[in-house]
């Protein structure tokens, strides 16, 4: 008895090209969606962490009569259980380290925000390893000379921001990290995502002013000149 067996054949070149085209199309549709969702997740994490830092700042202010600054270093050092912690100033890592020394924060993850110059914290809170280069993603807003912003006055003044452009102190922001948005934590305990103008890299408010514009019609008024204290970049 003879049996008929259907011969198997491979894909033709045309069929393979069609399959490749379909896969490429699906990838082209899916990848941007995945990237957008990742940036949204990074933004949500940064907003949440900024509120946690803000709470620590508030409690610090209640005990020391002001936010972390050069003038609070001595008092914090005397009360810190870790005498190896240093507070040289000049970067947000140093000022935020006062929150750890004072017992207001006990996790490095609180200070992390996605940026090209950051890395995931290693959890080491001892000495120079505490909030080391790259483990802080937020910039701290102060006045010149290591002077903290006053805790009185307009409560809409920004206190913590992310992500500053290339870890610099020039009041510009990275348009790519959070899809043209910046994280802004204000003294009234609000944390919002604000739009960045791509051409200037400045945060533009609904009023049409930039975030750091000063003058009578701004949150800064005429008596405050805000200064961005950036974090230390990875490898910095």
Describe the structure.
By secondary structure, the chain is α+β, with helices and mostly antiparallel strands. The chain has helices at 13-64, 73-79, 92-101; strands at 139-143, 147-148, 158-162, 181-186, 191-197, 202-203, 227-229. The chain has one domain (13-229). Helices cover 29% and strands 13% of the residues. Strand 5 and strand 6 form a beta hairpin. It starts with 12 loop residues before the first helix and ends in a 7-residue tail after the last strand.
Distance between the termini: 82 Å
Label the overall shape. Answer: globular
The helix/strand series, from N terminus to C terminus, equals HHHEEEEEEE
| Number of extended strands | 7
Q: What's the pLDDT, averaged over the residues?
A: 91
Strand pairing plus helix content: what structural class? alpha+beta
> What low-confidence regions span 5 or more consecutive residues with pLDDT below 50?
none
Helix content: 25-40%
Which helices and strands occur, and which strands form pairs?
Elements: H1 13-64, H2 73-79, H3 92-101, E1 139-143, E2 147-148, E3 158-162, E4 181-186, E5 191-197, E6 202-203, E7 227-229
Antiparallel strand pairs: 1-2, 1-3, 1-7, 3-4, 4-5, 5-6
Gist of the model:
It contains 3 helices and 7 strands; from the N terminus they run αααβββββββ.
Main features:
236 residues, alpha+beta, seven-stranded antiparallel β-sheet, 7 strands, 29% helix, 13% strand, globular
